[in-house]
Design goal:
homodimer, about 110 residues, alpha+beta, Alpha-Beta Plaits, 4-stranded antiparallel sheet, globular
Chain lengths: ~110, ~110
Amino acid sequence: MKQTFKPYYAVIFTSTQNENIEGYSEMANKIEHLAKQQKGFLEMDSARNEVGITVSYWETIEDIKLWKQQSEHLEAQQKGRVDWYSWYNVRICKVEREYEFLKNEL
Amino acid sequence: MKQTFKPYYAVIFTSTQNENIEGYSEMANKIEHLAKQQKGFLEMDSARNEVGITVSYWETIEDIKLWKQQSEHLEAQQKGRVDWYSWYNVRICKVEREYEFLKNEL
């Protein structure tokens, strides 16, 4: 942990989907594009097998609140509950430490 | 957010792998099995596409430290750096809020 480490925030979104997810992928792309333009957005990672995990990183908790209330994002959340997700869980976290490994290729 | 919400901790492990990951899957299973027996372990979710994301949840930050130092886990971390991962990032986070959606099937 660097002495200069500045805490930031993570939203861990874990989900399982319905069988029919028509329209999901277009919406996911649109929402990712919008998130990246949003104030305080830092980074986003996604992967899905049996369960889907999307983690987005934000400068402050206020940035997360504003993003949660963004109008097109609200619409997507509503559509997600009605059409795409059988279950989801959202966790708001403070990132307190971080370390990274990058392989030196010979 | 429930008024009774008790914070806990998350380890977000994000990674990219080498092409040859011989032995990885056996080790991943073994390590998951060991983690679940470890003091303070709560839950774990994993998914991998271009990037792999594994999030494990723990009662306290001390539980995470002890798990990081567990001997077979140390061995796996070492093998991961040498053989399997081209890059990884570990974030230690405090989970401050959580909410869940479960679809009511008609």
